[in-house]
Amino acid sequence: MLCLTGPTRAVTIDPPVLLAPMEGITDRIFRSLIAPHGGLGAAVSEFIRITVAPTPQRVCRRDLGPPIGVPVALQLMTPDDSHLAASVANAERAGAAWVDLNFGCPAPVVFSKCAGSALLAHPERIARIVATAAAATGLPVTAKMRAGISSPAHLRELVAAAAEAGAAAITLHARLRITSYDEPATWAWLAEARDALARCARPVPLIGNGGIETAADIVRMRAETGVDAVMVGRAALADPFIFRTAAGGPAPTVAEASAWALGYLDAIGSGSPKAKQLVRYWRCAGMLADPAQRQALLRGPTPAIAGFFTSLVPAGPAPPATRTSG
Ligand SMILES: Cc1cc2nc3c(=O)[nH]c(=O)nc-3n(C[C@H](O)[C@H](O)[C@H](O)COP(=O)(O)O)c2cc1C
Q1: What percentage of the chain has pLDDT greater than the value 70?
Q2: Cα 140 vs. chain centroid, distance in angstroms?
Q3: What is the rounded distance in angstroms from the CA atom of residue 125 to the CA atom of residue 165?
Q4: Which of 267, 264, 269 is nearest to 279 (CA)?
Q5: What pLDDT, in 10s, does the model give residues 22-42?
Q6: Does 25 or 316 have the greater pLDDT score?
Q7: How far apart are CA 142 and CA 43, in angstroms?
Q8: pTM for this one?
Q9: Whose CA is nearest to atom 29 of ligand 1?
């Protein structure tokens, strides 16, 4: 169990396994379809960028969606502290379980505006942003960051800056800004960050992230690095049952996995580009192990994707006959 403690409110994350924020993937639909299967302790929304005005409460509410039975944090990204306090207050009013701050986004448009991972060059700005957010709410405020821009040389200083400024926990994505998502994460940096946080005047928990591929990796990351919790990114789209399996539940069958995929396709709408995104990542229950089959689905028409999954779900019992009166 992980406890995030804010000035007046605390959040319990049990089990200590979180769904990562992933723009274009982990929206409220995805989160609502993942949570019921168990094993998920909490989730974080896709980032909302603060630009020329505070993020309105209605935008926070829309991104959070209806309750899903586990705490959901709202993630904000900002280059500085203007409009931050009001945005954080709106997130709290909208029902966020806590507020997460993004110091990891590598996108060039974000980087050029000195937000996301660009702030990794400025620990003092990270500290000011965290302190402003923490002073604006009774909720816990957390910081999610990479290990550095082009080197992990300032990793200890970065995590300490956020912790000392009032973060309730740090999430470390164990890659650099320049590291591509295809390269392995460096879990040794998680152990280093854990050590740095333990030496802080204000020690706070560390959430480890990066390179989780299987349920066994979740257990292994905790054992090898000492992180207090694990955050799962892309593997959750590859296998939405990864949280259940990591919690000791059964591995999904092909039929169960396909039924989940069909539910997802139905929820996003048949023509959504997210259908092909699902195929790109999907390997639940050992499916799409043949690259040629995956390529064929990616090249084919989008509706064929639903057809593929439908063919793997056994036909259920006939629906009960409709009773008519009179
Ligand atoms: C498509 C995509 C979108 C992402 N969007 C966000 C985001 O909105 N906020 C954030 O902090 N990280 C974002 N990330 C980074 C993930 O939260 C996570 O740190 C990263 O995927 C590493 O974890 P993994 O190796 O388990 O996938 C995104 C990653 C991907 C692949």
Answers
A1: 97
A2: 17
A3: 10
A4: 264
A5: 999 999 999 999 999 999 999
A6: 25
A7: 13
A8: 0.95
A9: 22
Report the nearest atom of ligand 1 relative to the CA of 47.
8
Same domain, 182 and 295: no
Please tell me whether residues 216 and 287 are part of one structural domain.
no
Non-local (6+) Cβ contacts of 318 within 8 A are none
Q: Is 103 helix (H, G, I), strand (E, B) or coil?
A: strand
What confidence tens digit (pLDDT) does each residue in 110-147 have? 888 888 999 999 999 999 999 999 999 999 999 999 99
| Contact residues for 249 (Cβ-Cβ < 8 A; gap 6+) | 37, 38, 39, 241
Cβ neighbourhood burial of 42 (10 Å; 0-12, 13-18, 19+): buried
Note whether 304 and 217 are same-domain residues.
no
Atom 22 in ligand 1: which residue has the minimum CA distance? 210
CATH number of the domain where residue 178 is located: 3.20.20.70
- Counting the structural domains of the chain, the total is 2
Number of Cβ within a 10 Å radius of residue 24? 10
Q: Report whether residue 225 contacts ligand 1, using a CB cutoff of 6 Å.
A: no
